[in-house]
Specification:
434 residues; alpha/beta; three-stranded antiparallel β-sheet; 16 helices
């Protein structure tokens, strides 16, 4: 039984607890001061779980994009309303990736999209409008290094880029309705990304079926919704609005619990380059939900039919507004580097390969049935990947998005399709290979 070091009498419960309380208080205060001095030390994965006002305050200090930098659009298709935002005019979009050649800050145009100063939205009409997610947006590349910008230069056409991060096919169409159709484009290119567009289609139908808050309920890592609600209420209270340390610890509990419930997914992989060197891809172990959704597609719990309504609507809009519809398919980096890649977790290799095969086969089949032009970028990217060395990668290793070279390859392949269809001679600039 614990005793008092001076009197040698048994220690009281209060005496036993007091040192623990003091130690925890000192630790809490130390953490609070440290995080206030160095907010950059807070991982983005934890910052996402902070109380909204605190998260916005810290994001401002770190020059990250926040809700105040966005504009919410009316959504008419019944999907998640909170995913229908665009950047506010001239917003600086900052990303924290420590990798050579990454562009950490880009400035969007007066409509909130990633375009060069020569591609003003005020132009009466555009030859080509492009729609897609962060692989279409200038994600960690300069605005003039997106595949849309390269397509404009390669073809001599006027091109307006409506790509925005964090969207899926149903959001692409909403953005096309809001901004693109009024510009009477002759061609619309929808770029599908294998990595998370399947997840985004699922979230769209979840929202329609269960309401706007279904995504938050689905993401709760605790055993019951009551526990989740209590935790969120405490996190959004006075401490949550005022304490860095409290938010950090609460976010850590949330994240650790989520990881324990679904087991830790290792989604990193090594790529052996043409010069014999080896590079770790997805070094931050991001996009782990891609593995989860791949498993659900491969084992039949989910179906590619979730894309049907979006592609059918794309075909209908093309007929109604007299534009030529193109669907381009961008594979994940591990598919482009398939013959050179080795997953850290060998157990997911077959799943990810099957996932890629199922998506590619679906889009080829469905676009053909709807008479939509289709270009699968996988073969050309795989061919180019075979010659990659460290300074000529197609995808960045940290965020596994296109490098400028990847964007150029994509633009060339889309250009080739348009040229084969005889469409470029009808644009304002005509066909102008460079």
């Amino acid at each position: 039984r614990p005793v008092d070091a001076v009197t040698m009498k048994p220690a009281t419960p209060l005496a036993r607890i007091f040192p623990v309380v003091v130690s925890l208080t000192v630790f809490f205060l130390f953490l609070e001061v440290t995080l206030r001095i160095l907010p950059v030390a807070i991982p983005l994965s934890l910052l996402e779980q902070f109380e909204p006002e605190m998260r916005s305050h810290i994001a401002d200090r770190r020059k990250l994009t926040t809700r105040k930098d966005t504009v919410l659009l009316e959504r008419r298709d019944g999907g998640p309303p909170d995913r229908m935002w665009v950047y506010a005019p001239a917003t600086e979009v900052h990303q924290e990736f420590d990798e050579p050649h990454i562009v950490k800050t880009v400035t969007v145009d007066d409509e909130g999209f990633c375009n060069t100063p020569s591609d003003l939205y005020q132009t009466n009409a555009f030859d080509i409008v492009t729609i897609g997610d962060s692989f279409t947006f200038c994600w960690t590349v300069a605005p003039d290094e997106s595949w849309s910008a390269y397509l404009a230069r390669f073809t001599g056409s006027s091109v307006y880029n409506l790509g925005l991060p964090g969207r899926g096919l149903y959001e692409y169409l909403e953005l096309l309705r809001h901004y693109g159709l009024s510009k009477a484009p002759r061609i619309v290119v929808m770029n599908v990304y294998a990595g998370n567009d399947f997840r985004d289609a699922y979230l769209y139908f979840e929202s329609k079926a269960r309401g706007a808050d279904s995504v938050a309920r689905h993401a709760c890592p605790f055993g019951s919704e009551a526990t989740c609600r209590t935790f969120v209420r405490l996190r959004h209270g006075s401490l949550g609005r005022n304490s860095y340390a409290y938010n950090f610890l609460a976010a850590a509990i949330w994240t650790i619990t989520a990881s324990a419930n679904k087991s830790e997914i290792r989604f990193q992989y090594d790529v052996r380059l043409a010069d014999g060197s080896t590079l770790k891809m997805n070094s931050r172990n991001g996009d782990r939900d891609e593995v989860e959704f791949a498993q659900r597609l491969v084992d039949g719990r989910l179906s590619t039919e979730m894309f049907d309504a979006a592609l059918e609507e794309f075909a209908r809009l093309a007929d109604q507004h007299d534009f030529f519809p193109v669907v381009s398919y961008t594979p994940s980096a591990y598919t482009a580097y398939d013959s050179m890649a080795t997953f850290d977790d060998e157990g997911i290799a077959d799943t990810m390969s099957s996932y890629s095969d199922l998506l590619r086969a679906y889009f080829a089949r469905k676009t053909s049935a709807l008479d939509l032009a289709f270009v699968d970028l996988t073969p050309v990217l795989a061919e180019e990947a075979a010659t990659s060395v460290d300074d000529s990668l197609l995808y960045f290793r940290t965020n596994v998005h296109f490098t400028p070279r990847g964007h150029r390859v994509a633009a060339r392949e889309i250009q080739a399709l348009l040229n084969d269809r005889g469409l470029l001679a009808e644009t304002t600039g005509g066909y102008s290979p460079q």
